[in-house]
Specification:
Layout lengths: L2 H7 L3 H25 L8 H29 L7 H21 L9 H23 L5 H19 L6 H81 L4 H28 L3 H14 L3 E5 L7 H20 L5 E8 L3 E8 L7 E2 L14 H10 L4 E7 L2 E9 L20 H9 L19 H15 L2 E2 L3 E2 L4 H14 L10 E7 L2 E7 L10
Parallel strand pairs: 1-2
Antiparallel strand pairs: 2-3, 3-6, 4-5, 5-6, 7-8, 9-10
Helix pairs in contact: 2-3, 2-5, 2-7, 3-4, 3-5, 4-5, 5-6, 5-7, 6-7, 7-8, 8-13, 9-10, 10-11, 12-14
Protein backbone atom coordinates (compact mmCIF):
# COMPACT_ATOMS: atom_id res chain seq x y z
CA UNK A 1 0.00 0.00 0.00
CA UNK A 2 1.49 3.35 -1.03
CA UNK A 3 2.21 6.07 1.49
CA UNK A 4 -0.43 8.68 0.43
CA UNK A 5 -3.20 6.09 0.53
CA UNK A 6 -2.05 4.87 3.92
CA UNK A 7 -1.98 8.45 5.22
CA UNK A 8 -5.59 8.89 4.18
CA UNK A 9 -6.81 5.53 5.47
CA UNK A 10 -5.22 6.06 8.87
CA UNK A 11 -7.33 9.15 9.47
CA UNK A 12 -10.56 8.99 11.45
CA UNK A 13 -13.86 9.76 9.75
CA UNK A 14 -14.16 13.30 11.22
CA UNK A 15 -10.55 14.03 10.24
CA UNK A 16 -11.29 12.86 6.69
CA UNK A 17 -14.34 15.11 6.46
CA UNK A 18 -12.32 18.06 7.74
CA UNK A 19 -9.51 17.42 5.26
CA UNK A 20 -12.03 17.08 2.42
CA UNK A 21 -13.71 20.36 3.40
CA UNK A 22 -10.44 22.22 3.79
CA UNK A 23 -9.02 21.08 0.46
CA UNK A 24 -12.32 21.80 -1.27
CA UNK A 25 -11.97 25.47 -0.35
CA UNK A 26 -8.34 25.37 -1.41
CA UNK A 27 -9.47 23.97 -4.73
CA UNK A 28 -11.86 26.91 -5.08
CA UNK A 29 -8.76 29.07 -5.48
CA UNK A 30 -7.66 26.94 -8.41
CA UNK A 31 -11.13 27.18 -9.93
CA UNK A 32 -11.05 30.98 -9.59
CA UNK A 33 -7.69 31.27 -11.32
CA UNK A 34 -8.60 28.87 -14.13
CA UNK A 35 -12.09 30.28 -14.70
CA UNK A 36 -11.41 34.01 -14.40
CA UNK A 37 -7.62 34.40 -14.66
CA UNK A 38 -6.61 32.38 -17.69
CA UNK A 39 -9.20 33.98 -20.06
CA UNK A 40 -7.38 37.28 -19.54
CA UNK A 41 -4.62 36.14 -21.88
CA UNK A 42 -5.55 36.93 -25.48
CA UNK A 43 -8.65 38.93 -24.60
CA UNK A 44 -7.17 41.93 -22.80
CA UNK A 45 -4.53 44.33 -24.05
CA UNK A 46 -1.00 43.17 -23.41
CA UNK A 47 -0.25 46.08 -21.09
CA UNK A 48 -3.00 45.00 -18.66
CA UNK A 49 -2.80 41.21 -19.01
CA UNK A 50 -0.25 40.35 -16.33
CA UNK A 51 -1.29 42.97 -13.76
CA UNK A 52 -4.91 41.84 -13.94
CA UNK A 53 -3.94 38.17 -13.85
CA UNK A 54 -1.74 38.69 -10.78
CA UNK A 55 -4.59 40.51 -9.05
CA UNK A 56 -6.88 37.54 -9.64
CA UNK A 57 -4.21 35.11 -8.39
CA UNK A 58 -3.58 37.20 -5.27
CA UNK A 59 -7.30 37.28 -4.52
CA UNK A 60 -7.54 33.50 -4.95
CA UNK A 61 -4.60 32.84 -2.60
CA UNK A 62 -6.04 35.22 -0.01
CA UNK A 63 -9.37 33.38 -0.20
CA UNK A 64 -7.64 30.03 0.39
CA UNK A 65 -5.67 31.29 3.41
CA UNK A 66 -8.73 32.96 4.93
CA UNK A 67 -10.80 29.82 4.42
CA UNK A 68 -8.18 27.67 6.16
CA UNK A 69 -7.97 30.01 9.15
CA UNK A 70 -11.75 30.28 9.32
CA UNK A 71 -12.06 26.49 9.48
CA UNK A 72 -9.51 26.43 12.30
CA UNK A 73 -11.63 29.00 14.12
CA UNK A 74 -14.72 26.91 13.52
CA UNK A 75 -12.99 23.90 15.11
CA UNK A 76 -11.89 26.06 18.05
CA UNK A 77 -8.15 25.76 17.42
CA UNK A 78 -7.49 29.49 16.84
CA UNK A 79 -9.05 32.92 17.18
CA UNK A 80 -11.36 34.39 14.59
CA UNK A 81 -9.23 35.68 11.65
CA UNK A 82 -10.64 39.21 11.73
CA UNK A 83 -7.65 40.85 10.05
CA UNK A 84 -7.56 38.33 7.24
CA UNK A 85 -11.28 38.79 6.66
CA UNK A 86 -10.89 42.56 6.51
CA UNK A 87 -7.98 42.26 4.09
CA UNK A 88 -9.99 39.88 1.92
CA UNK A 89 -12.93 42.27 1.82
CA UNK A 90 -10.72 45.19 0.75
CA UNK A 91 -8.87 43.18 -1.90
CA UNK A 92 -12.17 41.84 -3.25
CA UNK A 93 -13.56 45.34 -3.61
CA UNK A 94 -10.37 46.61 -5.25
CA UNK A 95 -10.13 43.80 -7.81
CA UNK A 96 -13.83 44.13 -8.62
CA UNK A 97 -13.57 47.86 -9.24
CA UNK A 98 -10.47 47.44 -11.42
CA UNK A 99 -12.13 44.70 -13.44
CA UNK A 100 -15.28 46.75 -13.87
CA UNK A 101 -13.25 49.78 -14.95
CA UNK A 102 -11.52 47.71 -17.63
CA UNK A 103 -14.86 46.62 -19.04
CA UNK A 104 -15.24 50.01 -20.70
CA UNK A 105 -15.54 53.62 -19.58
CA UNK A 106 -15.84 57.03 -21.16
CA UNK A 107 -12.10 57.62 -20.84
CA UNK A 108 -11.12 54.12 -22.02
CA UNK A 109 -13.29 52.32 -24.52
CA UNK A 110 -13.12 48.50 -24.30
CA UNK A 111 -13.44 45.79 -26.87
CA UNK A 112 -16.17 43.21 -26.67
CA UNK A 113 -13.74 40.55 -25.38
CA UNK A 114 -12.42 42.88 -22.69
CA UNK A 115 -15.95 43.68 -21.57
CA UNK A 116 -16.87 40.01 -21.36
CA UNK A 117 -13.72 39.00 -19.42
CA UNK A 118 -13.83 41.99 -17.10
CA UNK A 119 -17.49 41.43 -16.26
CA UNK A 120 -16.85 37.79 -15.42
CA UNK A 121 -13.92 38.77 -13.18
CA UNK A 122 -16.12 41.35 -11.43
CA UNK A 123 -18.82 38.80 -10.64
CA UNK A 124 -16.36 36.00 -9.81
CA UNK A 125 -14.16 37.79 -7.29
CA UNK A 126 -17.21 39.15 -5.44
CA UNK A 127 -18.82 35.69 -5.32
CA UNK A 128 -15.70 33.86 -4.11
CA UNK A 129 -14.83 36.62 -1.66
CA UNK A 130 -18.31 36.68 -0.13
CA UNK A 131 -18.46 32.88 0.15
CA UNK A 132 -15.08 32.80 1.90
CA UNK A 133 -16.10 35.55 4.31
CA UNK A 134 -19.15 33.47 5.27
CA UNK A 135 -16.82 30.87 6.80
CA UNK A 136 -15.67 33.40 9.37
CA UNK A 137 -19.07 33.99 10.92
CA UNK A 138 -21.76 31.85 12.55
CA UNK A 139 -24.54 34.40 12.29
CA UNK A 140 -26.95 33.67 9.45
CA UNK A 141 -28.11 37.26 9.36
CA UNK A 142 -24.58 38.45 8.73
CA UNK A 143 -24.19 35.93 5.93
CA UNK A 144 -27.41 37.10 4.30
CA UNK A 145 -26.46 40.74 4.74
CA UNK A 146 -23.07 40.10 3.14
CA UNK A 147 -24.63 38.51 0.07
CA UNK A 148 -27.27 41.19 -0.38
CA UNK A 149 -24.76 43.95 0.25
CA UNK A 150 -22.33 42.53 -2.31
CA UNK A 151 -25.05 42.33 -4.95
CA UNK A 152 -26.32 45.83 -4.24
CA UNK A 153 -22.79 47.21 -4.19
CA UNK A 154 -22.00 45.65 -7.53
CA UNK A 155 -25.07 47.21 -9.10
CA UNK A 156 -24.43 50.62 -7.57
CA UNK A 157 -20.78 50.72 -8.65
CA UNK A 158 -21.79 49.94 -12.23
CA UNK A 159 -23.60 53.26 -12.72
CA UNK A 160 -20.66 55.65 -12.19
CA UNK A 161 -18.59 53.59 -14.61
CA UNK A 162 -21.08 54.14 -17.41
CA UNK A 163 -23.15 50.92 -17.28
CA UNK A 164 -26.76 51.34 -18.38
CA UNK A 165 -29.56 50.43 -15.98
CA UNK A 166 -30.38 46.95 -17.38
CA UNK A 167 -26.70 45.98 -17.44
CA UNK A 168 -26.25 47.14 -13.84
CA UNK A 169 -29.31 45.14 -12.79
CA UNK A 170 -28.06 42.03 -14.54
CA UNK A 171 -24.71 42.44 -12.82
CA UNK A 172 -26.38 42.75 -9.42
CA UNK A 173 -28.51 39.63 -10.01
CA UNK A 174 -25.47 37.65 -11.18
CA UNK A 175 -23.55 38.63 -8.05
CA UNK A 176 -26.54 37.76 -5.86
CA UNK A 177 -26.92 34.27 -7.33
CA UNK A 178 -23.25 33.28 -7.44
CA UNK A 179 -22.36 34.80 -4.07
CA UNK A 180 -25.48 33.28 -2.51
CA UNK A 181 -24.62 29.82 -3.85
CA UNK A 182 -21.02 29.91 -2.61
CA UNK A 183 -22.12 31.31 0.76
CA UNK A 184 -24.65 28.52 1.17
CA UNK A 185 -21.97 25.99 0.20
CA UNK A 186 -19.59 27.36 2.81
CA UNK A 187 -22.24 27.42 5.55
CA UNK A 188 -23.38 23.90 4.76
CA UNK A 189 -19.80 22.62 4.76
CA UNK A 190 -19.18 24.07 8.22
CA UNK A 191 -22.46 22.62 9.52
CA UNK A 192 -21.64 19.19 8.11
CA UNK A 193 -18.14 19.25 9.62
CA UNK A 194 -19.48 20.17 13.06
CA UNK A 195 -22.18 17.51 12.81
CA UNK A 196 -19.62 14.80 12.02
CA UNK A 197 -17.47 15.79 14.99
CA UNK A 198 -20.52 15.88 17.26
CA UNK A 199 -21.58 12.42 16.11
CA UNK A 200 -18.10 11.08 16.76
CA UNK A 201 -18.10 12.63 20.23
CA UNK A 202 -21.55 11.17 20.88
CA UNK A 203 -20.30 7.73 19.87
CA UNK A 204 -17.38 7.98 22.28
CA UNK A 205 -19.70 9.21 25.02
CA UNK A 206 -22.08 6.34 24.38
CA UNK A 207 -19.22 3.86 24.67
CA UNK A 208 -18.09 5.38 27.97
CA UNK A 209 -21.66 5.39 29.27
CA UNK A 210 -22.05 1.73 28.33
CA UNK A 211 -18.93 0.88 30.33
CA UNK A 212 -20.15 2.97 33.26
CA UNK A 213 -23.58 1.34 33.17
CA UNK A 214 -22.01 -2.10 33.13
CA UNK A 215 -19.87 -1.22 36.13
CA UNK A 216 -22.93 0.07 37.96
CA UNK A 217 -24.84 -3.10 37.11
CA UNK A 218 -22.02 -5.27 38.35
CA UNK A 219 -21.70 -3.23 41.53
CA UNK A 220 -25.45 -3.40 42.07
CA UNK A 221 -25.45 -7.16 41.64
CA UNK A 222 -22.60 -7.57 44.11
CA UNK A 223 -24.39 -5.33 46.59
CA UNK A 224 -27.61 -7.29 46.26
CA UNK A 225 -25.78 -10.58 46.69
CA UNK A 226 -23.38 -9.67 49.47
CA UNK A 227 -25.23 -6.94 51.36
CA UNK A 228 -27.75 -9.11 53.17
CA UNK A 229 -25.42 -12.06 53.61
CA UNK A 230 -22.65 -9.98 55.15
CA UNK A 231 -25.12 -8.33 57.51
CA UNK A 232 -26.40 -11.73 58.65
CA UNK A 233 -22.83 -13.04 59.04
CA UNK A 234 -21.93 -10.05 61.20
CA UNK A 235 -24.99 -10.49 63.43
CA UNK A 236 -24.59 -14.23 63.83
CA UNK A 237 -20.85 -13.92 64.49
CA UNK A 238 -21.53 -11.36 67.21
CA UNK A 239 -24.18 -13.64 68.70
CA UNK A 240 -21.78 -16.59 68.61
CA UNK A 241 -19.13 -14.54 70.41
CA UNK A 242 -21.56 -13.65 73.18
CA UNK A 243 -22.76 -17.25 73.51
CA UNK A 244 -19.19 -18.54 73.55
CA UNK A 245 -18.23 -16.16 76.34
CA UNK A 246 -21.11 -17.53 78.39
CA UNK A 247 -20.14 -21.11 77.64
CA UNK A 248 -23.35 -21.82 75.76
CA UNK A 249 -23.26 -24.71 73.25
CA UNK A 250 -25.53 -22.76 70.89
CA UNK A 251 -22.45 -20.81 69.78
CA UNK A 252 -21.44 -23.81 67.66
CA UNK A 253 -24.80 -23.80 65.90
CA UNK A 254 -24.49 -20.09 65.16
CA UNK A 255 -21.01 -20.50 63.66
CA UNK A 256 -22.26 -23.43 61.61
CA UNK A 257 -24.93 -21.14 60.21
CA UNK A 258 -22.28 -18.48 59.52
CA UNK A 259 -20.29 -21.09 57.62
CA UNK A 260 -23.32 -22.03 55.56
CA UNK A 261 -24.07 -18.41 54.69
CA UNK A 262 -20.42 -17.77 53.76
CA UNK A 263 -20.39 -20.72 51.37
CA UNK A 264 -23.68 -19.62 49.89
CA UNK A 265 -22.20 -16.15 49.37
CA UNK A 266 -19.22 -17.70 47.58
CA UNK A 267 -21.51 -19.51 45.18
CA UNK A 268 -23.57 -16.40 44.52
CA UNK A 269 -20.50 -14.24 43.88
CA UNK A 270 -19.12 -16.85 41.49
CA UNK A 271 -22.43 -16.87 39.66
CA UNK A 272 -22.39 -13.08 39.34
CA UNK A 273 -18.79 -13.01 38.11
CA UNK A 274 -19.41 -15.88 35.72
CA UNK A 275 -22.38 -14.08 34.20
CA UNK A 276 -20.32 -10.90 33.94
CA UNK A 277 -17.34 -12.52 32.23
CA UNK A 278 -19.04 -14.97 29.91
CA UNK A 279 -20.26 -13.83 26.50
CA UNK A 280 -23.09 -15.56 24.65
CA UNK A 281 -22.03 -16.18 21.05
CA UNK A 282 -25.53 -15.97 19.59
CA UNK A 283 -26.21 -12.66 21.32
CA UNK A 284 -22.80 -11.29 20.32
CA UNK A 285 -23.33 -12.20 16.65
CA UNK A 286 -26.72 -10.49 16.58
CA UNK A 287 -25.35 -7.47 18.44
CA UNK A 288 -22.37 -7.14 16.12
CA UNK A 289 -24.59 -7.18 13.06
CA UNK A 290 -26.89 -4.56 14.56
CA UNK A 291 -24.09 -2.24 15.67
CA UNK A 292 -22.19 -2.43 12.38
CA UNK A 293 -25.34 -1.91 10.35
CA UNK A 294 -26.22 1.13 12.44
CA UNK A 295 -22.72 2.49 11.77
CA UNK A 296 -23.30 2.27 8.01
CA UNK A 297 -21.29 -0.92 7.51
CA UNK A 298 -22.83 -3.73 5.48
CA UNK A 299 -22.54 -6.74 7.81
CA UNK A 300 -23.41 -10.34 6.98
CA UNK A 301 -23.43 -13.19 9.51
CA UNK A 302 -23.42 -16.87 8.52
CA UNK A 303 -23.35 -19.97 10.69
CA UNK A 304 -25.09 -21.21 13.85
CA UNK A 305 -23.80 -21.57 17.39
CA UNK A 306 -26.50 -23.61 19.08
CA UNK A 307 -24.57 -26.89 19.20
CA UNK A 308 -21.28 -25.57 20.58
CA UNK A 309 -20.18 -26.10 24.18
CA UNK A 310 -20.74 -23.22 26.56
CA UNK A 311 -17.01 -22.57 27.12
CA UNK A 312 -16.34 -22.34 23.37
CA UNK A 313 -19.34 -20.09 22.83
CA UNK A 314 -18.09 -17.76 25.54
CA UNK A 315 -14.56 -17.56 24.08
CA UNK A 316 -15.79 -16.98 20.53
CA UNK A 317 -18.32 -14.45 21.80
CA UNK A 318 -15.45 -12.35 23.11
CA UNK A 319 -13.74 -12.65 19.73
CA UNK A 320 -16.83 -11.28 17.99
CA UNK A 321 -17.09 -8.46 20.52
CA UNK A 322 -13.45 -7.40 20.14
CA UNK A 323 -13.52 -7.76 16.34
CA UNK A 324 -16.58 -5.51 16.16
CA UNK A 325 -14.80 -2.90 18.26
CA UNK A 326 -11.75 -3.05 15.96
CA UNK A 327 -13.92 -2.57 12.87
CA UNK A 328 -15.54 0.52 14.37
CA UNK A 329 -12.41 2.14 15.81
CA UNK A 330 -9.35 1.05 13.84
CA UNK A 331 -10.52 1.06 10.25
CA UNK A 332 -12.80 2.62 7.67
CA UNK A 333 -14.72 -0.44 6.61
CA UNK A 334 -17.67 -0.40 4.26
CA UNK A 335 -18.50 -4.11 4.59
CA UNK A 336 -17.86 -6.85 7.12
CA UNK A 337 -18.47 -10.59 6.88
CA UNK A 338 -18.71 -12.85 9.94
CA UNK A 339 -18.56 -16.59 9.30
CA UNK A 340 -18.87 -19.44 11.80
CA UNK A 341 -18.03 -22.94 10.57
CA UNK A 342 -18.06 -26.05 12.73
CA UNK A 343 -16.32 -29.17 11.43
CA UNK A 344 -16.01 -32.56 13.09
CA UNK A 345 -13.10 -31.58 15.32
CA UNK A 346 -12.71 -27.80 15.08
CA UNK A 347 -14.86 -24.68 14.96
CA UNK A 348 -13.64 -21.66 12.99
CA UNK A 349 -14.80 -18.07 13.39
CA UNK A 350 -13.74 -15.57 10.71
CA UNK A 351 -14.34 -11.81 10.78
CA UNK A 352 -13.25 -10.05 7.59
CA UNK A 353 -13.69 -6.42 6.59
CA UNK A 354 -12.41 -4.06 3.91
CA UNK A 355 -11.07 -1.48 6.37
CA UNK A 356 -7.54 -2.86 6.58
CA UNK A 357 -4.94 -0.65 8.28
CA UNK A 358 -1.74 0.50 6.58
CA UNK A 359 -0.03 -2.88 6.77
CA UNK A 360 0.31 -5.89 4.52
CA UNK A 361 0.53 -9.51 5.54
CA UNK A 362 0.09 -11.08 8.93
CA UNK A 363 1.11 -9.30 12.06
CA UNK A 364 4.40 -10.39 13.61
CA UNK A 365 2.48 -11.60 16.62
CA UNK A 366 -0.77 -12.46 14.92
CA UNK A 367 -0.49 -16.13 15.74
CA UNK A 368 -0.49 -15.19 19.38
CA UNK A 369 -3.37 -12.89 18.83
CA UNK A 370 -1.81 -9.51 19.36
CA UNK A 371 -3.18 -6.57 17.51
CA UNK A 372 -1.34 -5.87 14.25
CA UNK A 373 -1.39 -2.09 14.55
CA UNK A 374 -0.80 -1.78 18.26
CA UNK A 375 -3.15 -2.14 21.19
CA UNK A 376 -3.83 -5.00 23.54
CA UNK A 377 -7.39 -6.08 22.74
CA UNK A 378 -6.34 -9.14 20.75
CA UNK A 379 -3.85 -10.14 23.42
CA UNK A 380 -6.76 -10.68 25.77
CA UNK A 381 -8.49 -12.76 23.10
CA UNK A 382 -5.42 -14.97 22.85
CA UNK A 383 -5.60 -15.59 26.57
CA UNK A 384 -9.29 -16.43 26.46
CA UNK A 385 -8.86 -18.76 23.49
CA UNK A 386 -5.89 -20.37 25.21
CA UNK A 387 -8.23 -21.55 27.96
CA UNK A 388 -10.03 -23.71 25.37
CA UNK A 389 -6.85 -24.59 23.41
CA UNK A 390 -7.76 -22.19 20.62
CA UNK A 391 -5.53 -20.06 18.38
CA UNK A 392 -5.98 -16.61 16.88
CA UNK A 393 -4.66 -15.31 13.56
CA UNK A 394 -4.91 -11.73 12.31
CA UNK A 395 -3.54 -10.01 9.24
CA UNK A 396 -4.24 -8.02 6.09
CA UNK A 397 -4.37 -9.14 2.50
CA UNK A 398 -5.53 -7.25 -0.57
CA UNK A 399 -6.82 -4.30 1.41
CA UNK A 400 -8.89 -6.52 3.73
CA UNK A 401 -8.32 -7.32 7.39
CA UNK A 402 -9.10 -10.86 8.53
CA UNK A 403 -9.37 -12.18 12.08
CA UNK A 404 -9.62 -15.96 12.42
CA UNK A 405 -10.16 -17.93 15.62
CA UNK A 406 -9.96 -21.73 15.65
CA UNK A 407 -11.01 -23.81 18.64
CA UNK A 408 -10.82 -27.63 18.76
CA UNK A 409 -14.03 -29.36 19.72
CA UNK A 410 -13.95 -31.84 22.62
CA UNK A 411 -13.97 -35.48 21.54
CA UNK A 412 -17.03 -37.22 23.01
CA UNK A 413 -16.37 -40.49 24.86
CA UNK A 414 -18.38 -43.60 24.31
CA UNK A 415 -20.74 -44.68 27.12
CA UNK A 416 -18.94 -46.85 29.66
CA UNK A 417 -15.49 -45.58 28.71
CA UNK A 418 -15.09 -43.48 31.85
CA UNK A 419 -13.18 -45.34 34.59
CA UNK A 420 -14.89 -46.01 37.92
CA UNK A 421 -12.74 -46.43 41.05
CA UNK A 422 -13.13 -49.71 42.89
CA UNK A 423 -14.35 -49.50 46.50
CA UNK A 424 -11.73 -49.90 49.23
CA UNK A 425 -11.79 -52.93 51.55
CA UNK A 426 -14.26 -52.86 54.44
CA UNK A 427 -15.87 -49.66 53.09
CA UNK A 428 -18.77 -48.99 50.79
CA UNK A 429 -18.85 -46.91 47.65
CA UNK A 430 -20.40 -43.96 49.41
CA UNK A 431 -17.56 -43.93 51.91
CA UNK A 432 -14.94 -43.74 49.16
CA UNK A 433 -16.89 -41.09 47.35
CA UNK A 434 -17.04 -38.92 50.41
CA UNK A 435 -13.37 -39.54 51.15
CA UNK A 436 -12.52 -38.11 47.73
CA UNK A 437 -14.71 -35.16 48.42
CA UNK A 438 -13.11 -34.59 51.80
CA UNK A 439 -9.91 -33.50 50.10
CA UNK A 440 -11.63 -30.22 49.28
CA UNK A 441 -10.93 -27.37 51.63
CA UNK A 442 -12.72 -27.80 54.95
CA UNK A 443 -14.83 -30.75 53.92
CA UNK A 444 -14.02 -33.03 56.85
CA UNK A 445 -13.86 -30.39 59.52
CA UNK A 446 -16.46 -27.93 58.37
CA UNK A 447 -13.78 -25.33 57.66
CA UNK A 448 -14.85 -22.96 54.86
CA UNK A 449 -12.84 -22.93 51.68
CA UNK A 450 -10.92 -19.74 50.95
CA UNK A 451 -10.81 -20.39 47.22
CA UNK A 452 -12.83 -17.64 45.64
CA UNK A 453 -11.16 -17.58 42.26
CA UNK A 454 -13.96 -16.90 39.75
CA UNK A 455 -12.03 -18.66 37.00
CA UNK A 456 -12.72 -22.03 38.65
CA UNK A 457 -16.47 -21.79 38.35
CA UNK A 458 -17.01 -25.32 37.19
CA UNK A 459 -15.05 -26.71 40.13
CA UNK A 460 -16.87 -24.43 42.54
CA UNK A 461 -20.26 -25.47 41.20
CA UNK A 462 -19.35 -29.11 41.73
CA UNK A 463 -18.46 -28.32 45.32
CA UNK A 464 -21.68 -26.37 45.76
CA UNK A 465 -23.80 -29.39 44.89
CA UNK A 466 -22.50 -31.27 47.93
CA UNK A 467 -22.43 -28.36 50.37
CA UNK A 468 -26.16 -28.24 51.06
CA UNK A 469 -26.36 -31.81 52.22
CA UNK A 470 -23.05 -31.73 54.05
CA UNK A 471 -23.56 -28.51 56.00
CA UNK A 472 -26.11 -30.14 58.26
CA UNK A 473 -23.54 -32.73 59.33
CA UNK A 474 -20.73 -30.36 60.25
CA UNK A 475 -19.75 -29.28 63.74
CA UNK A 476 -17.12 -26.50 63.79
CA UNK A 477 -15.55 -27.26 67.20
CA UNK A 478 -15.88 -31.04 67.47
CA UNK A 479 -15.16 -32.12 63.91
CA UNK A 480 -17.93 -34.31 62.55
CA UNK A 481 -21.12 -35.21 64.40
CA UNK A 482 -22.86 -37.37 61.85
CA UNK A 483 -22.35 -38.32 58.22
CA UNK A 484 -20.78 -40.79 55.87
CA UNK A 485 -17.42 -41.22 54.21
CA UNK A 486 -14.04 -41.00 55.98
CA UNK A 487 -15.44 -38.60 58.57
CA UNK A 488 -18.32 -40.96 59.31
CA UNK A 489 -15.89 -43.88 59.48
CA UNK A 490 -13.77 -42.04 62.06
CA UNK A 491 -16.84 -41.29 64.13
CA UNK A 492 -17.99 -44.92 64.02
CA UNK A 493 -14.47 -46.13 64.81
CA UNK A 494 -14.32 -43.98 67.92
CA UNK A 495 -17.73 -45.28 68.98
CA UNK A 496 -16.63 -48.87 68.42
CA UNK A 497 -13.52 -48.21 70.47
CA UNK A 498 -15.58 -46.94 73.35
CA UNK A 499 -17.77 -50.04 73.15
CA UNK A 500 -14.77 -52.36 72.96
CA UNK A 501 -15.28 -53.19 69.33
CA UNK A 502 -12.60 -54.09 66.81
CA UNK A 503 -10.61 -51.19 65.49
CA UNK A 504 -11.25 -49.01 68.54
CA UNK A 505 -8.62 -46.39 69.11
CA UNK A 506 -9.13 -43.22 71.10
CA UNK A 507 -5.89 -41.81 69.79
CA UNK A 508 -7.36 -41.08 66.39
CA UNK A 509 -6.85 -37.47 65.41
CA UNK A 510 -8.13 -35.33 62.59
CA UNK A 511 -5.42 -33.20 61.07
CA UNK A 512 -6.03 -30.23 58.82
CA UNK A 513 -3.57 -29.79 56.00
CA UNK A 514 -3.37 -28.95 52.37
CA UNK A 515 -3.87 -31.07 49.32
CA UNK A 516 -1.99 -29.81 46.28
CA UNK A 517 -2.51 -26.09 45.95
CA UNK A 518 -5.90 -26.11 47.65
CA UNK A 519 -6.73 -26.02 51.31
CA UNK A 520 -8.11 -29.35 52.50
CA UNK A 521 -8.55 -31.70 55.41
CA UNK A 522 -6.79 -35.04 55.64
CA UNK A 523 -7.61 -37.64 58.30
CA UNK A 524 -4.49 -39.08 59.95
CA UNK A 525 -5.54 -42.30 61.70
CA UNK A 526 -3.01 -44.34 63.76
CA UNK A 527 -4.15 -47.97 63.59
CA UNK A 528 -3.60 -51.02 65.66
CA UNK A 529 -2.41 -54.36 64.48
CA UNK A 530 -5.12 -56.22 62.72
CA UNK A 531 -7.02 -53.13 61.71
CA UNK A 532 -7.71 -52.77 58.05
CA UNK A 533 -6.77 -49.31 56.76
CA UNK A 534 -7.93 -48.43 53.26
Amino acid sequence: MNEPTGWWRDKSTPAKVEAYTRWSFHFFAVIEVVTFGLPIFGNVSSALTWPLFLLVCAHAVLCAVTASQSLDWTRGTRRQPGRMMLALALVTAAVAVVALALSGTDWRPATEDEMRVSSSIFVGVIAFGTGTLALGTRDRRRMTSAVVGAAAGGGVVSFPLGFPGPAALITAVAVLLTAGFLTFTAAFSVWLLNAVYELDAARETRARLAVAEERLRFGRDLHDVMGRNLAVIALKSELAVQLSRRGRPEAVDQMTEVQRIARESQREVRAVVRGYREADLRVELAGAQGVLTAAGIDCSVTGASTELPVAIQSALGWVVREATTNVLRHGDAKSCAVSLRAAADVVTLTVENDGAPNTEGPSPRSEGGSEPIGGSGLVGLRERLGEVDGVLRAGTSGGRFRLTAEVPLPVPRAPGSYPHPAPAPDTDTDTDTDRGRSTRAGRGTGRPSMDTDPDRDGEADAEADTDKGRDKDVDVDRGVRTGVGRAGQDRRSRRDGEDGGVGGNKDRVLEVGTVGHEGGAAASVPHQAGEVTP
